[in-house]
Amino acid sequence: MAINRQPREDLMKEATAYDRRLKLRDANAGEIFVGMRAQRGWSIYFGEDPVFQFNAESQLRRVHLNNQNYAAENGKLLLLQRSGSGGQVELTRTFSNAAQLAIRRDCLNRLTAVLSEFERSSLQVLDQFPADSDLMRQIEERLRVVVRNYSVAEVPHATQTG
Question: Is residue 136 within 8 Å of 118, Cβ to Cβ?
């Protein structure tokens, strides 16, 4: 799975799948990491949990929320649960309309709050790679797209062809 369950050491150094990375501190002194991929998919981490991952069209494709993982399938988010014994691992996918609505509400609330902080210029940049990019503007644009037109991807991959 793309979302790792182990504690993250330093996403700015280790999350090299993101060719552009930004670490911010919000008004509540929480750290936010945003990573953008070369093929335009992007992710936003609110510490260890939650994590929202988007494809190039800014459609939600994967979520890690309340220690549970979800993946997009046919425009819906499905809970992914691992089980197994004897070396066999089975992955079960379960849809819950209530869970999907809760994820939508949480995602939009968090992204709207971050977008408001962008608009007020109240976010503190802790680290950025590359240093000379217009990453703040790009992230603000992506946040606006999600907040205005929230949607779930057809597939859990960063690119639709993926």
Answer: yes
Backbone angles phi, psi at 39, to 5 degrees: -85, 15
Spell out a b/e string for 102-134, using b for 16 or more CB atoms within 10 Å of the CB, else e: ebbebbeebbeebbebbeeeebeeeebbeeeee
CB atoms closer than 10 angstroms to residue 83: 9
Give how far Cα 112 sits from Cα of 5, 19, 88, Å: 26, 25, 41
pTM over 0.85: yes
Provide, for the chain, the percentages of residues in helix, strand and coil under a 3-state DSSP scheme, each rounded to the nearest 5.
25, 35, 40
The bridge status of strand 124-129 relative to strand 88-95 is unpaired
Residue type, 152: V
Q: Kindly give the parts of the chain with pLDDT less than 50.
A: 1-5, 162
